[in-house]
Amino acid sequence: MIRRAVLHDATSFDDALTSGDLSHLNDDTADLVRTAQALTRSAMAEPSLEFRAGLRDTLMAEAADVLVAQPHAAPTEPTTITAEPGRPVRRRLVGLTAALVTAVGSVGMISSSATAVPGDVLYPIKQGVESVQLTLHRGDTARGEFQLDQARERLAEASWLDAHDQDDRVAEVLETFTSQASAGSSDLFAAYGVERDTQSIDTVNDFAAGAAVMLGTMSDDLPADAQAALASAADAITGLASQASVLCTACSPAELSSLIAAVDAAVKNSDAATSTSEGSAPDSTPGSVTVPKTDSNGSPAKQPAKQPAKTPATPVPTPTSLKELTDPLIGGLLGDENQEGLVPSVLDGLLGGKN
Amino acid sequence: MRVDSSALSAGDASALPCPDSDKSAVAQADDEPTNAFSADYRPPGSGQHGHDPEAIRLRALVDLAKEGDCEAFGQLYDHYITGIFRFIYYRVGSKQLAEDLASETFVRGLRSIQRFSWQGKDFGAWLTTIARNLITDHFKSSRSRLEFTTDTIPEGRTAADSPEVEVLTLMSNEMLSEAVNALPPEQRDCILMRFMQGLSIAQTAAAIGRSEGAIKQLQLRAVRSLASSMPPDIR
Predict the structure, then answer these.
(1) How close, in Å, is residue A169 to chain B by CA atoms?
(2) Which H or E run contains A151?
(3) What is the pLDDT of residues A116-146, one digit of tens each?
(4) Do A81 and B56 touch (CB under 8 A)?
(5) Cβ B220–A9 below 8 Å, yes or no?
């Protein structure tokens, strides 16, 4: 309140000083205005005429050397000559320019970040953009498909890192891949449970087949942690394929067959890597599965279907008949010689059958 | 649209090609009917604002000078020299020293004008900032301290005043300088810029680096302090 009153007094004083109208002021303030007016009237000192002329001549002589002719500043002159010369116009132009540059820069940066790989400066931006994009996807199907796309991107990044001898980041990327693949597939399975649309299962199967191909092309000389992550990813793919086959027995059996062979190769590769890392001769393990190397362009040197060396030693049963497809489902629910089964396990838990 | 400095001259002042301009500064000084720093300028802050023709003319002159037009700078000099001189003179109290510092102010302004940007600062405020810094540097140096001790007494009126002015003038330059320099630094500079030099509130705010509202409050405090330090008969 006091501050406002002070500002009001100061404004009234200045207004009276400018207008010369003291009628609305109290006596004290009017005296101050008169003092200021006296100050202004008294300050009459001026430089001598000789000094003015001499300095002007000096300046004009120096100006000929100092003032370099510059190109006509087109943007500024109209604003100074025309009736709207003030700072606001300039500020608006500066603001608009800054906003435009920021927008273009942001778009360019986001666009550039799309091709970033782990370790790049722009990679965090890529991750941030993906997170935002994920929040924009509504519904299990949309979210699941987008997360599988993200998982594909992680796999491509892992393959690129592997091809460019940047193996130290492969493990982390593969772990992210596994997480995103599981999350996306889970969403799609949930969508299938509600909508019974086989497209959701087909999407998972296609993803798993593609992922298995990519995993199969990873080199066999990855660091131990990357090998473990690779094995974990392969397990996840196998699990997804199995779950897909359980949920939808009529979904794309041919693709599933190709998928299982490739996934098994990846699993075997990871097993071999694990045994190699545990053995004393890491790079000469007899009977280890050779994984096709990528060529100089980073693309697979061989197609998975033409890789006899990747034929699984203990193949996962290829679902060529309805019985073979339904058996895992029944086994998973009721149990068989390999597993306890979901129903017996739950009943044991409820009735205290175990322990 | 290209504007020549000759078209922007005040009154009948005609710009001649630089550097052969033989136009006398005295003659030009007589052609300053709207000079914000001339003796006719009253009250402070009424010029240099908004869209008045004089402000537009000055902006155009600055732009032309930045592009290399010597005569445009000459006209800017004619416009600002009195105000800059007064600001320095009432601060240092010596005519000779004020002329030296005013010379240095304009030389520096000339050498830097092509780097001058309108953003956030009026040209007059920019010149005043140069002068203010020069004064500060002057008082900081030991040489200037010695000089000040021997040349600190203001020299009274320097211009040949008319009898009317003599009668109307209430305070001598000596009294003014002493009273103003007894104020705290910001109040002192505010008084110098507003009432000696004739800068507007906006220009003073730009030169001191404060908001316009802060300058209005500073101005009132400064006038109050000054009034309390002066004899009642003068007030």
Answers:
(1) 49
(2) helix A140-163
(3) 888 888 888 888 888 888 888 888 888 999 9
(4) yes
(5) yes
